[in-house]
Amino acid sequence: MFLWIVGGPQSFAQAENHFVRSLWTIHTKFKEVLLCLRKLAKDNIKPRDPTFRHEHEKIKEERFWPHFKGAIGAIDGSHLPVSVPNVLAVCDFDMRFTFVVAGWPGCAHDTRVLNHALAHFPSFPIPPKGKYYLVDSGYPNRTGYLAPFKGSTYHLLEFRLRCHRPPEGKYELFNFSHSSLRNMLLSVLSGY
Length: 192
Fold this sequence. Notes:
This is DDE Tnp4 domain-containing protein. Keywords: Hydrolase, Metal-binding, Nuclease, Nucleus. It comes from Aegilops tauschii subsp. strangulata (Goatgrass). It is found in: Nucleus. The protein is an alpha/beta fold and 192 residues long. It has two domains: 2-44; 57-190, no CATH class. It is 39% helix and 15% strand. It is built from six helices and five strands, in the order αααβββαββαα. Strands 3-2-1-4-5 form a five-stranded mixed β-sheet, sandwiched between helices. A hairpin with a 5-residue loop joins β2 and β3. The longest helix has 22 residues, at 23-44. The two termini are 20 Å apart.
């Protein structure tokens, strides 16, 4: 019943008709499952090392080191083919979610959702000094958040469509490495 309601989106009145249960039962059971999921999220969606003291082994690969020294994960806003269209997800280099905000209605700019998360969720894993998240061009370059160079090829698909030509120049090379590292992390979203 819970999945049917959030997957639709379906109202409680629609659930009442579909499952032939009272509104009180629908509301009570929905709230029970939601509270259980929130408790589960507190245990599972968080940084393994909240102080971010150690560089992850993936960052130490030759193609990323030392250019992305200090990277602690990636942030992306994603539109998923479910009724909760806007999701802000933070992933670490072990491809685990460390923070998730879901449910912004309609189209919301990535920066707006991030700023709201920073202002209203004390559990947001803010990067400590000298550390940062990799973000796409929908986010501004600012302390703790490293975006790609604007005006230069960025997405891996764009590089592939150019007849497999390698990146040219320092901006394209940086963007190619940035995109490769983010995609390695955020491939977890595609299986979401």
